[in-house]
Amino acid sequence: SGLHLPQRVRHHAAERPGAPAVTCGDTTLTYAELDWRTNRIATALSTLTSRGGRVGALLRMRTEGVETFVAAAKSGLVFVPLNWRLPAAEAAAVAVDAGLEVLIVESEFAATADAVRDALPHVVVVVVDAADGGTLPPGVWTWERLVTSGTATDPGLGDDPAAEVLQLYTSGTTGRPKGVVATHRNLHNEPDGLLIYHWKPDSVALDALPLFHIAGAGWLSTCLSAGVHVVLLGAFDARQVAELIERHRITHAFLVPSTIQMLLDVPGLERYDVSSLELVAYGSAPITTTLLRRAIDRLGCGFVQRYGMTETTGSITALAARDHDPSGDRAHLLRSAGMPMPGVEVEIRDVLTGARLPVGESGEIVCRSRNNVAGYWKRPDETANLLTQDGFLRTGDAGHLDAEGYLFVTDRVKDMIITGGENVYPIEVETVLAEHPAVGEVAVVGVPHRTWGETVTAVVRLADPSDAPDEQDLIDFTAARLASYKKPREIVYVAELPRGASGKVLRRALREELRDTEV
Ligand code: ATP
Ligand code: MG
Fold it and tell me: Do β-strands 252-255 and 204-207 pair in parallel, antiparallel, or remain unpaired?
């Protein structure tokens, strides 16, 4: 059997037909069921689309999303999960950008589906939860109709490693989201399973990440390829994460830092039995060492960090479980994103000249591997900017390598603050401020300044809104721990930090706001 998702699912269905593949709420599909149902969906989709066409999904976490992903892969189609946190007009704009031929949708998102049908008259909309007996307009199908209109034979178009299989949009943290097209070869992730997750036949994986981010789509593909049981988190709620871990004896989970934070803050968390957890993988945004130490302490399982991006179809480095011992003399490694995965080359290059920089020096992180995508969807200029002459991909992240080869991701190149000629990476300042007891959450940005170019400004959400410390307190707290030019000149208190549709803090939004209110 081959290495890619369709062949892996077929393999598990033949070897262990009755093994559970995916559970959401009260619905469980075995590998045999997943395999035959996706054959039917795949053949049905083939009749509705052109070769290599785009099949969109606007679904929360549910089994139909998993089935659509596998079915599209089997039929040589490209799966395009859309971010359901986007406002209807923006989601519709993404659907149009992708040129969807089919859109699988939940009735909750009917307004977006209507906007897509207006813009793309030939699109077939499939409603997964259409009310029984209701009549649907022409061009709108029920999920049942899709499943039953197909035939039982795998179309067999999922075997070409160079075929496009997934189109995701970047999170839009530094600009407008960009479409990224990945092939089977890009998505292939065998080293992850072998070296990082150490799957056992009875492993149970929690999937709490939406499919529209690479961390989510990659994690699902990794888990199904390994043949483990995947439990989907329905509606997002941190208490549900704890409940599902206990109920399904979850062994593996991939969580993002904000979810870890919410999970640890669940009142009465200690009453849940989370002892089944063997490994928590985390990544997709920076984590503070404070939060990481709390999580290690509270959850008591192995931790593995992944660093990567949509354009690299998932992680390029991993910080191994053994590097998470916070008491050892290697505790500084908790700030590292780990070592490159086998087959991945990582270098640090000068942002302006592109020259390769030596160990210890900070610059832009670039990487080369078969997981690098060929480019963006319909954005030739941005694609040209993404890839270097010698086949490396510019991550847009700043960082350095140490002598042993550990990668330290400092921050986004675009977020670096230049104040009085000195470079300040916001995360370094945020990490220090996050340790102040009054600080609930903090984002640091550069605000334009006549003399200094930019000044360091900290935007703080207080742990307790009724207990704001004196601004100078926080400034002194930072000055005592960092070089003086890194300390904030100004502290701004806010009720909530602005976040993008993927939950990441939007420093660019803060910059714009502060620029407008500048004194
Ligand atoms: P956009 O490219 O549209 O601005 P984005 O870069 O946030 O948005 P993604 O591709 O979803 O979109 O996220 C990748 C980015 O997430 C990386 O470039 C990096 O900045 C950040 N990231 C991912 N993993 C880690 C990690 N382990 N530690 C720190 N940052 C991480
Ligand atoms: Mg990016």
Answer: parallel
Which pLDDT tens digit goes with each residue over 116-163? 999 999 999 999 998 876 788 888 999 999 999 999 999 989 889 999
Report the alpha-carbon distance of residue 516 to residue 519 in Å, rounded: 9
Q: How do residues 234-257 score in pLDDT, each as one tens digit?
A: 877 899 999 999 999 999 999 999
Residue-wise pLDDT for 374-393, tens only, equals 999 999 999 999 999 999 99
Note whether 491 and 474 are within 8 A (CB). Answer: yes
| CA nearest to 187, candidates 452, 3, 433 | 3
Ligand nearest to the CA of 311: 1
- Whether the pLDDT of residue 215 is over 80: the answer is yes
| Tokens read off for 430 | 């945020």
Selection from 227, 163, 218 nearest residue 189 by Cα: 218
Q: What is the ipTM, given to two decimal places?
A: 0.99
Which of 37, 387, 25 shows the shortest CA–CA distance to 180?
387
The pLDDT value given to residue 167: 98
Residue nearest to atom 23 of ligand 1 (CA): 284
CA 356 to chain CA mean position, Å: 28
Question: Would you say 331 and 322 are in contact if contact means Cβ atoms under 8 Å apart?
Answer: no
- CA–CA distances in Å: residue 360 to residues 306, 400, 402, 407: 21, 6, 5, 10
Q: Tell me if 177 CB under 6 Å of ligand 1.
A: yes
Ion ligand 2: residues, CB within 5 A, are 170
Tell me, in angstroms, the distance from the centre of ligand 2 to residue 508's CA: 13
pLDDT at residue number 133: 67
Query: Please, where are the H alpha helices in 130-233?
Result: 143-149, 184-187, 190-191, 214-226
